[in-house]
Design a protein that fits this description.
By secondary structure, the protein is an alpha+beta fold. The chain contains nine helices and 13 strands. Helix 7 packs antiparallel against helix 8.
Length: about 325
């Protein structure tokens, strides 16, 4: 999916002004990260889109895409009415579409490594809701990362970081700000428009109605899945989220683990330079008064003495 979606797309990403972004996690996960320093890189984990906390995320992205779909079609090459995706959706019950899209997710996107993997971060480094939801109920840590070192910039343009995905190294992460509404100029929609153009080229060669419907389902999902990776339901806007988004290049890159809810979820490793690691907040519910000194010593032993360690200042007991 990466090669198809990203081809010849320039992406304008607004840089966040040099501020750090924070990855909330448990102390045990921090220890695993520090134990896997390879060639001056820290190894983080990016989870499959299907395992994110917001259970409505895919469908919210799908609705955002559906809102803009007629505009995409009107700007594209003229198609017969029965080939238009918006027409197919209009004549099909939403519940049926949702069921079939879920089937395609299992059959095609996951098996062929075509689903994005996401590592979530926030501009909020010491935040009560974030500690409660993602920081091991306040007993974990918040890792401050310098987002400037996560980019592969090509040039600057009016304050925006411009990426040419044809030159983009897929072995490096790609940080994107999650937004709550879309326009046709948003990077997620540029990816979707690229997919739609590929659909136009393919659908003209098909005559069997079943084959056409299958292609339409695959196209809708491929357009929706990146929209979902880069948008978020407004109820979660307080998270001020930045995501590091990647796709797996092969099945062997995908690993599996059990999450806090007892579910098996897919993930891939993301390597970040050690100089990204700038600050670390210790959760407000950590019991030991010596935790800060212990963590500082541990980081120093790993060659990360440049990382500033701060005990959380929020009055939260969990």
């Amino acid at each position: 999916m990466g090669e198809v979606i990203y081809t010849k797309i320039g992406m304008n990403i607004i840089y966040n002004g040099g501020k750090l972004v924070y990855h909330y996690t448990s102390t045990s996960t921090l220890l695993k990260i520090l134990d896997k320093i390879e060639d001056d890189h820290l190894v983080f984990f990016a989870s499959g889109m299907s395992s994110l906390n917001d259970s409505s995320e895919f469908m919210y992205g799908f609705k955002q895409l559906r809102r803009l779909l007629p505009s995409i079609e009107n700007k594209a090459e003229e198609l017969e009415q029965n080939f238009r995706l918006s027409e197919m959706l209009k004549n099909t019950e939403d519940s049926f579409i949702v069921e079939r899209l879920n089937e395609r997710f299992t059959d095609i996107l996951l098996k062929e490594c075509r689903s994005p993997f996401v590592m979530s971060t926030s501009t909020e480094g010491d935040n009560i809701p974030m500690w409660a939801m993602y920081g091991d109920a306040g007993k974990g840590v918040s890792i401050g990362l310098d987002i400037a070192n996560m980019y592969v910039p090509i040039k600057m343009n009016d304050g925006s970081m411009v990426f040419d995905i044809t030159k983009y190294d897929t072995n490096e992460p790609h940080a994107l700000k999650v937004v709550h509404s879309l326009s046709l100029k948003h990077p997620a929609m540029l990816l979707s428009i690229s997919t739609y153009k590929k659909y136009i080229e393919t659908v003209k060669s098909l005559s069997n109605k079943v084959d056409i419907f299958r292609l339409q389902l695959v196209t809708l999902y491929e357009m929706s899945v990146y929209v979902s990776a880069l948008t978020k339901h407004p109820a979660f806007s307080f998270e001020n989220e930045w995501r590091i988004v990647r796709t797996a290049s092969c099945l062997s890159q995908i690993n599996y683990r059990v999450n806090s809810r007892g579910s098996v979820i897919p993930y891939i490793n993301i390597k970040l330079p050690v100089n990204c690691f700038k600050k670390l907040y210790i959760g407000p519910c950590c019991e030991s008064s010596y935790q800060k000194e212990i963590v500082e010593k541990m980081l120093s032993n790993k060659g990360l003495e440049h990382c500033k360690v701060i005990k959380s200042r929020v009055p939260y007991k969990g």
